[in-house]
Design brief:
The chain is of the alpha/beta class and 313 residues long. It folds into two domains: 132 residues, Udp-n-acetylmuramoylalanyl-d-glutamate--2,6- Diaminopimelate Ligase, Chain: A, domain 1, CATH 3.40.1390; 162 residues, P-loop containing nucleotide triphosphate hydrolases (Rossmann fold). The chain contains ten helices and 17 strands. A hairpin with a 2-residue loop joins strand 16 and strand 17. The mean pLDDT is 90.
């Protein structure tokens, strides 16, 4: 997502961050937040505007207000005016501190929303950055099902009708947890890390052909679902094609790029008689071993090469 409005930020967090608006309410939907970083304008208050990150939310705490008080009325109004003139998205005042004289009138003059919170400065900064990093992170919507199998996030893909939902339902019956069915929202949280969840309207619901829509949380309990999970493995289902060379040893590792991140991928052929839920469980456990530095296929291959070397001698 490229940006969110200050109004969206406030509506999402006013209770959690104990926010209340004290100025500029009429400008909430006109101001945009485009970065997840937060700024404490200490250098700006000292008069340095050579680099001022105007695009960030500005947070004023006890340190900033103590310095403003030390500056005195005229000089304080001048530097605060310069800050608000930069068209900052919004200002947060921590610890329910009383704003200095002229602060709110300058905010209104430059159409800047001002919030106050009872949280300490460091707490509101860290909480706001965590929220914004998730909210502004690159996202993509994918078709498939997503399930937590032994703590491994398995994204099951394949063409419509291949049996993705049925396999996921078997996994839920076997004690694993559904994250999403049909529409999966994938977010890149950092370098090499993806998180996925279901669309809020349909999350934890599944469509089973011949049965219809079911509510997994109601049928199987809250222990059968979870809201989000890291994406660890893509498991692609396709119809068994006679003569096609499928991976049998697991030495050659395939990946799928999602939002610039390479995720391990397994192509799983589907045909009558294969118990797919058990195969998915084994694939998840095997992926977990690989994440811990153990690759059974490569380890066996290395042992075989050593053995063959000895036999040749």
């Amino acid at each position: 997502m490229d940006f969110i409005t200050v109004k969206e930020f406030f509506e999402d967090n006013n209770e959690k961050f104990r926010l209340s608006i004290i100025a500029g309410e009429e400008y909430l939907d006109k101001k945009k937040i485009v970065v997840s970083d937060i700024n404490r304008p200490g250098l700006a208050l000292a008069g340095f505007f050579g680099y001022f990150p105007y695009e960030r939310i500005q947070v004023f705490g006890k340190t900033e207000f103590t310095y403003i008080k030390k500056l005195g009325g005229v000089k304080a109004d001048r530097v605060m005016g310069e800050i608000f003139k930069q068209n900052v998205p919004c200002v947060i005042i921590s610890r329910n501190l009383k704003a200095p004289s002229g602060f709110l009138s300058l905010a209104k003059k430059y159409k800047t929303p001002v919030f106050e919170t009872s949280l300490f400065t460091t707490k509101i900064i860290s909480a706001t950055m965590i929220y914004l990093e998730k909210k502004l992170a690159p996202k993509i919507t994918m078709h498939g099902t997503f399930v937590d199998v032994y703590g491994v996030g398995v994204l099951i893909s394949g063409k419509s009708g291949i049996g993705k939902s049925e396999v996921t339902l078997e996994l839920v019956k076997r004690g694993h947890r559904l994250v999403a069915d049909d529409l999966i929202e994938v977010t890149r949280l950092g370098e090499g890390e993806l998180e996925a969840k279901g669309m809020s309207v349909v999350q934890h619901h599944m469509e089973i052909r011949g049965v219809g829509i079911i509510d997994v949380r109601t049928l199987f309990g809250v222990g059968a679902v979870r809201d989000s999970q890291k994406v660890d493995l893509v498991l692609h289902l396709e119809e068994w094609e006679k003569g096609k060379d499928y991976e049998r040893l697991g030495i050659e590792e395939k990946t799928q790029e999602i939002l610039g991140v390479q995720i391990p991928k397994i192509v799983l052929p589907v045909k009558p008689g294969r118990t797919l839920s058990i195969i998915v469980e084994v694939a998840a456990m095997n992926q977990r071993l690989k994440q811990k530095g153990h690759n059974p296929a490569k380890e066996l291959n290395d042992k075989m090469m050593v053995y063959m070397g000895k036999e040749n001698k």
